[in-house]
Amino acid sequence: MSNMAVCVAVIAKENYPLFIKTTPTDNELQFYYTVHTSLDVVEEKISSVGKNANDLRELYLGLLYPTEDYKVYGYVTNTKVKFVVVVESSNTSLRDNEIRTMFKRLHGAYVDMLSNPFYNPGENIVSRKFENVVMGMMKQD
Amino acid sequence: MSWASELPPELLCRPVGLVVLTGLDTTYNAVHKAVWDAFCNNRRPDRVPLHFRALELDHVYPKAKPKRTSYEWYIPKGILKTGWMKKHQNEVPAVVVIFFDLDWDDPMWKERQMECSTRVEIVRNSLQGRGTKIAVVLLQKSAPLPPGEDQGAAERASSFCSACDISAKSLYVLPQTDHLLGFTIRLENAFYELAQSYHHMEARKVKSHKDFLNRTTHQLLFVRHQFKTAFFNELKQDTHTAIKHYKQAYGHILEQRMHDTNMLEIKTIAGFVNYKICRLSFQHNVPLDAIAQFRKHIDFFKNRVGIPELAFEHSAWMSRQFQLFGDLFDEAIKLGLTAIQTQHPGFYYQQAANHAIFRKQLCHGLCVDQEKQPNAAILEGLEHLDFYGQRSWRQGHQSIEPPDPQKEKEGIIALQALERKVDHCWIIIPLLSSAVAQFRKYKSPRMKRYLMVQMGEEYFHAKDFSKALMLLNKVTWDYRMEQWWPLLTSILETSLKCAYLTARVQEYVANCMELICKNSQCSLDTKTRIQMNLLQVLSHEGPSSEPGLDQKCMEQAIKAWSEFKAKPHVFTIEMQGLIPFIECKARFVGETVPADGEVHLEVCFRVTCPLPVRFSKLRIQLSNPRYQQNCELTDVRGTNAASASREESDSDDLHLEPGKPRLYQFSFLPVKEDVGGQIDISSVTLEMGMESGCCAVLRWMGAGGESLIGPAPVVGPSKKLPAGQTFDWALFKVNPIIRVTPRKALLQLSVDHQSPCLINEFYTMTVTATNTENTSIHNAKLSLGLQTDQEGYDATTHICSSSPEFDGTVQGEPVKLDLGTVKKGDKVTKQFFVKCLQSGNRSLSVKVEYTVDVKQGQHAVSCQCVKEEVVTLPAVAPFEVSLLLQSLKFEALEAVHAEEPFLLMTDIRCTSPWPVDIKTSSVTLSEYIKTASDVFDSQVEGVQLNKTECASECLWLVAASCIQPSVAMGTYTIHWRRQGEDTPYVSTSFPLPTVNIEHIPISVHLQLPAFGRVKTLLPLTYVIRNRTAYVQELEINMESTDNFMFSGNKQTRFRVLPAEEYRLLYNFFPLVAGQVALPRLHVNMLRYPGTMDDLIYSMLPSHIFIRPVGKSLQMPT
After folding, report:
1. Would you say the pTM of this structure is higher than 0.90?
2. CATH of A7-138, one of 3.60.130.10, 3.30.1490.20, 3.30.450.70, 3.40.50.2300
3. Cys-Cys crosslink for B218: which of A26, B213, B458, B1076, Cβ 3.0 to 4.6 Å?
4. Domain Trafficking protein particle complex subunit spans what residues (chain B) (predicted)?
């Protein structure tokens, strides 16, 4: 079985990374670029919704863009914190629903982490618990 | 390697049918030349898609192969011959047209017809076995007659057709008239129809082979035939049928047996067919079909690499596929298709670039140098293969195993050698640059930057280091702004290498500074190494090289760095443009400083690099350069470090240790020109290295502090300071501005005055200034004036000094008095007079400006001081005057009667809190009002009024008769001053009311004594005067009364002449004593009946006092 996700990232409102975890690879930097460039689509999707204040934006943004080898999914919280998950294109076991669940879990873990009074919003995430949740998403089934 | 992935031009262009024109002598015959030009030159896009060629009559066309009757023993050698498409586009015509000069009435008709039929025969022979259509065009000099009228022509035409063995439909006439182009267009439309029918037939011919094929041996032919059918349909311009056949061809390709030996061929043809399908799909405006087809194509082939040793071929092919699709997509967009952010040509160009990069990597991995010279001869004919996508050394071979393993190996080595010669960077860079253009267009700035980074890296690999550096510098800013440190670090590492290799000192130093900062993701060892290099460069030495560089480039770099050592370098680096290893904050202590106080300036620095750093000079530039020498600090320890002791606490030591912020303090006196203004920190510069060698000037604009990444998070003050640190970095607030306030004046200023001020009076203000300085003051200037924000009052406030004067022009400007030098402890007193013309509160500012010499250490500083007092001055009216009009009977009047006297009562009520002296009063009357008495004597002269006391005057006035119904009476003026002052009297005027003047035609006047006595005769005379210019007839009636007996007319009627009077005499005999009502006299004017009675009554007294009879001392006789 293949990995669930190969890269999970949390991006701050100002678009700098709070947390990035990738499967061990030589080309970690490539994943950083993939996550970073996906912000283009995220920004576009957020701004296109913003024009109509009435319709509630869904947090899950869906597939951001496909590359040859990876699929990049996005999720934006109401405070504009972005979650990006990268899965391998060859991984057909993950459907939209699984990705949604994954994001929900990630969001939950993020909120738990944020509730820690010793954490200042905007700082890099170092919580072990949060990391474990992310590791769980990237673990082999 | 281009041969394997390149698409032939005949595939890329739009296929059009070929029409050959023969029999045209374009060189010597002007008419023929014109005809040729009409066909070929300036073809507009709306003309039919045909390709024309002019060939000789006896041109040899490609021979048609004998038609195969059975495919039973035929084994195909490949899918598609390389020459086939070209042949059907450029060599085998769909139509051959024979042009022939022949008129219907040609005298040599028979001979000419023979000649032409021979020509037709020649052409027909050379096209033996082909279905090419033949047409004849007769070039005629005379214009044709309408069809059916020229009987001879019709006969000759039919005979001509039979002689040439052509159908009547293939014979055309082209008259040489003015309308050549019109005829040409009609002709070419006819040719187009012929060509279409030819292509239709050809397509059917190919299709008919299908029945002979079998699945086992003829698999390749299935593809070939479908491709050909599709291509013929395309030539026919039937793109819908064409795409159908291309899709079938594609389906057959996927069914092929694939193995390493034929993979390249299959991929090549699949690429061709895929290209055609995508191109036609875009053309049919179904882009999603095109995208889906392309995806399917890529997904199917992406893992079918073929011969592993030639894996780069696969990458090249993949790259090419993506690029071609990107081009098609882009082309479609130019023709009106809209793309979106997540689906546009950029992605395909990017993928093409990725495959090209992968190809380069494969090439580096696979194509290692062979000692043996590769056999170049084996690749001969690579450009001229029989079939697309085959190997030159085993053409036409279709078995699974290569026929000659040795040859195969040699071939592979030769291909690898060929690949090694390819400069991949110049394949990758244009692809990336196309992708950049697309991503820029579709609002993907980050992707664009990423591609630019890739481009930069590619330039780096291509050894164009300065270009790489330039590209990377363009994007680093954005990565800095978004705080993606891992990406920034990786980019900076590449630029550092570029800067090193090009020996660009400034970029090198800047990159080093950024790479050793705390945000850099380099390992500590790397940081240490980089910092050592940085220090080396700044001590004017060449740095040691970066790891993993090309040996040859490194040698050049070392040479370049040795040139660097030859001459000094001084350059400035803007620290706010990068994330440096050193942070700076500067502030003024306090918000303001008095002119005679010292300005305290503090700068603190913090370094985050692994090793301590020593700087050579610290400078703070302020808005006024005169402080420059006070704000400089040169490190002296660095130069004579040996002699200086470490322990000494110092300020001239610019040695900074990581994690230990240091604070530097400066102080200086503000100069005179800055007093009242402010001093700004314009920049902070820190020099590193020696000016004689290599010196980097680190500059922070303003007071530093905020860096690119915004303010640091606020840290609570509870944090304990590390030992040895005297201030908290986080709490150090940047403050780049200090205001210099004037020195506090030591001067006592008192203003003596008695508020409130009365309107119009000369209000005395006595200002006393006492010098309480330690020394005498100079240039003292005293001024009194309205405060600057008191707009609107300046027109109603008159200020003067020395003597109270007012000539009617208001002087609202502040009055300045020069006091000159005032000795220590001296007092100066000055008087000012303020005249307020309106009520309201005014703020007056009393100011003394002076200079004083202040001792500040050894220097005597001349300071400007200002002492200001603000006085609020309320102005109130001194009195209220009410003016009343009354009749002589002291009854209030609404209107006065012309030429009838009346009274003006003035009530002066004092509202001033101070007693007021009234000197006199006067009245200025208008021309219509006169005083009834001869002279007007003021009745209030010399009166003194306290608050709420009143004074009254009564004026006896008379109104002249005039035409205006109402007139202004004039003004009433009081001349007064505050009691006990010796200021001049001032006058305050009040306007008299406006009265209505009524004209009464008659006046009635009663002449009567002051009193009467009971039972004593009281004679009364009523004088009735006619004031009009007409005779008035009057009727009177005297009421009877119990109080009097009287004699005279009780009722009478009489006339009064104009301006004359009439006297009515009565003798009254009072019967009762006391205030007795007189009987009423009713006057009725016959001209104005019933109007006069009330008027008359108001003119006449109503009562008279009647004395009782005194008791006589004498007894009545």
Report:
1. no
2. 3.30.450.70
3. B213
4. 262-516
